[in-house]
Write a structure and sequence with these properties.
Layout: H1 2-15, H2 17-26, E1 48-52, E2 55-58, E3 63-66, H3 81-94, H4 103-116, E4 120-124, H5 127-142, E5 146-150, E6 191-194, H6 199-209, E7 213-218, H7 234-245, E8 248-253, H8 264-269, E9 275-278, E10 289-293, H9 295-302, H10 316-328, H11 331-355, E11 360-364, E12 367-371, H12 380-384, H13 388-400, E13 403-404, E14 413-414, H14 421-439
Parallel strand pairs: 3-13, 5-6, 5-7, 7-8, 8-9
Antiparallel strand pairs: 1-2, 2-3, 4-10, 9-10, 11-12, 12-14
């Protein structure tokens, strides 16, 4: 396998010269030559010049099938015609920023009330903002400060949520009693860490610290460790534990949202949190996010216990994009994309069985992944036991065959409304060739 990996890295540099040159130039003005650190990989990332539908064109002129799709932000496809139409109308006739109330923001708030089952909500510009304000809402509501988060989970850049984001195993203690890992640059406050899919750990932490805990922040389905789904009854148990101790339950649906289905993961899984954060999939590629939920918790914004500000919140340009996405993401459209995803995963599962690979697929909504482990991954410690060398080879194999997925070795592909079965067949056949190469 090491020889295969070395050969693939050599192949990578043979067709991506302009990306290397662009990265060298960009590194003189942008740290690492990128606008978000996750975009960087060694020796350099692929630089994209344009995109349309499900396809990218890089600075070398290569066409690549996009299965990253902005981690969900491009759910409706690049330059979706309806999004372009709505946004162009706003640019030509409505405006880009009022910094006053507007009918456009009110209409979208009403639409999200109905779609996601929220009593009240506020718009923000990023998932990080939404999580930060959701936690501040919870603190104002409960008059408590501490929070609980899931070990290994990523929830954006807010300090309290930087604790134990993919930490080194040597730094976090035993699996049944995790020790929070706090980066030096972070002022986290009091953050307790528990394993996903482990109600016993949660009960122990709440029994000891529950009276000080404002909120539990959790992705209902973890999507920064490939895809980790909840055990049967786990989320209902989390809901009951939070209720018992008066803790605000926050579902981070920044990465699930519409990619999980028409009304998001909470309604699909049948567990209603107190607050939900949304971003990525709702904006059609424009910077849009939101937080909202139960009226009694959101009342802290109404009565001033928690102030929420933002010049660009709910601006008419992103509201136009949001309206287009809401109109395009019908039950039928999302179900068709999910069925396409399922067909691709079934084909890959058959290849895994045929070549007896130590892997399995996991899917949720329109997202899917290959997890390089013969047994299911239920939490961060399981994820750390997967085969990262195989994951790197699998990712790089796809990139070299012009199929772009996220570079983290633990992310997932996304089937957008712009993808076709023919597009997904490219992913499947590339995986088949990888399987053959591994068994030679």
């Amino acid at each position: 396998m090491s020889q295969l990996l070395a050969a693939e890295w050599e192949r990578f540099t043979s067709w991506s010269h302009a990306s290397g040159e662009h990265n060298a130039r960009a590194s003189q003005s942008l740290p690492l030559g990128v606008t978000s650190s996750f975009q960087h990989w060694e020796p350099y990332p692929i630089s994209i010049a344009s995109a349309r539908g499900a396809w990218l064109t890089d600075v070398d002129g290569n066409r690549l099938l996009d299965l990253s799709m902005g981690f969900g932000a491009m759910l409706v496809g690049h330059l979706n015609p309806h999004v372009v139409e709505r946004v162009t109308e706003a640019l030509n006739h409505t405006g880009t920023l009022f910094v006053t109330p507007s009918p456009q923001a009110t209409e979208m708030a009403e639409r999200y009330q109905a779609r996601f089952g929220l009593d009240m909500l506020r718009f923000t510009n990023s998932g990080t903002e939404s999580l930060m304000y959701a936690i501040r809402c919870a603190r104002a509501y409960t008059q408590r400060k501490a929070i609980i988060k899931i070990e290994g989970g990523y929830h954006g850049g807010y300090d309290a949520l930087q604790v134990s984001v993919k930490p080194e195993l040597a730094d976090i203690g035993p699996a049944d009693a995790p020790i929070p890992d706090v980066p030096f640059d972070v002022e986290a406050g009091t953050v307790h860490v528990v394993a996903y899919n482990d109600l016993d750990q949660l009960h122990r932490v709440l029994a000891e610290h529950g009276s000080d805990v404002a909120a539990l922040v959790i992705e209902p389905v973890i999507e920064n460790l490939s895809i980790v789904v909840p055990d049967e009854g786990y989320l209902a148990g989390v809901r009951a534990a939070c209720d018992e101790h008066g803790v605000v339950l926050i579902f981070d649906e920044v990465k699930t949202g519409l990619t999980a289905g028409y009304a998001g993961a909470a309604q699909r899984l049948g567990v209603q949190p107190d607050l939900i954060t949304l971003a990525k999939s709702i904006g059609g590629g424009l910077p849009l996010a939101a937080f909202g939920g139960k009226r009694e918790v959101m009342q802290v914004v109404v009565d001033g216990r928690m102030a929420h500000f933002g010049t660009y919140n709910g601006n008419p340009l992103v509201m136009a994009a949001a309206l287009a996405v809401d109109e395009v993401c019908t039950h039928e459209a999302l179900e068709a994309a999910e069925a396409m995803n399922n067909r691709a995963m079934q084909a890959i599962d058959e290849i895994i069985r045929q070549y007896e690979l130590p892997a399995h697929t996991v899917g949720f909504g329109v997202k899917g992944c290959v997890t390089w482990s013969a047994s299911p991954v239920r939490n961060y410690r399981d994820y750390k036991a997967t085969d990262f060398q195989l994951a790197e080879l699998s990712w790089l194999w796809g990139v070299n065959r012009r199929v772009l997925t996220p570079p983290g070795l633990d992310e997932q592909w996304l089937v957008s409304l712009a993808h076709t079965d023919e597009d997904m067949a490219i992913l499947v056949e590339d995986f088949r060739e990888l399987a053959k190469a591994l068994r030679q």
